[in-house]
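INSTRUCTION: Work out how this chain folds

Fields: amino acid sequence; protein backbone structure tokens

Chain under study, with its fold:
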Amino acid sequence: MTLPTELRRLSDRIGYGFCDPARLVEALTHPSARQPDTPDNQRLEFLGDRVIGLVMATAVMDRDPGADEGILAVRFNALVRGETCVRVAEGIDLGAVLRCDQSVRNADGQPTPSALGDGLEALVAAVYLDGGFEQAAAMVRRLWDAHAGDVTGRETNAKGRLQEWAQARDLPLPEYRQVRRRGPDHAPVFVVEAVLADRTRGCGEASSIRKAEQRAAAAVLATVESGHEP
């Protein structure tokens, strides 16, 4: 199977050449454009979401071996959330080659953000099935690397974001409580708990109360943004 020029250019943009081009075609076929002889990308989307999750979870752990689970969760969520996937898809101009019906295109003719995100996940799965996990992981890290800076901004402003989250739901502002202090006076470690009115809570620890509060807020955000609310 010979790839059209626009698909060869996409392969160049993602840095991967397919051994089986049919996998790429499948990844780029939205359900709205499915033909009797061409499967759509829904199954690949399902698989790609899991591949991205594993690669990003490993990446955030590798970048900061000392980070606790709450901080890792915030960084992970920032990298795998839908908005980030759409930006990655736009960065490789996926919309130019995604096959979809007019019903899933915006007024400007571009695929909707949902279609773009799904297509990107399917593309990752196609690389995984075609070339193995190492090839897929290398591509994901390369494409997502430009968005790593978004993580720091979300993490350092965790208290502000948590306050906005609570206010948007007419909840009282989060409460912060110092629950423990350990270590010598010259190198203390503070443990702070953040609590929402609905009893969602998270802990953070750091060398200052302010940083511990940010990490506690990040832990709560990791819970509510993942949908695991009580």
About this structure: Strands lie at 175-182, 189-195, 201-206. The longest strand covers residues 175-182.
